[in-house]
């Protein structure tokens, strides 16, 4: 089961969230991490996307 980590970053004017998830490579079967910084409202949609 993949784990997810969400850390909140706060800048002077905008509130941003850094989200990380594990994605399994179809070729080798190894797991890699993908990271993105986005608005907190977009995190659940990003985590729900496949690949």
TrEMBL record:
User: What InterPro entries does the record point to?
Assistant: DUF4295
The protein here is known as DUF4295 domain-containing protein
For this protein's source organism, the top of the classification is: Bacteria, Pseudomonadati, Bacteroidota, Flavobacteriia, Flavobacteriales
């Amino acid at each position: 089961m993949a784990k997810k980590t969400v850390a909140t970053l706060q800048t002077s004017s905008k509130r941003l969230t850094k989200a990380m998830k594990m994605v399994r490579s179809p070729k080798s079967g190894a797991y890699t991490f993908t990271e993105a910084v986005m608005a907190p409202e977009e995190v659940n949609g990003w985590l729900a996307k496949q690949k």
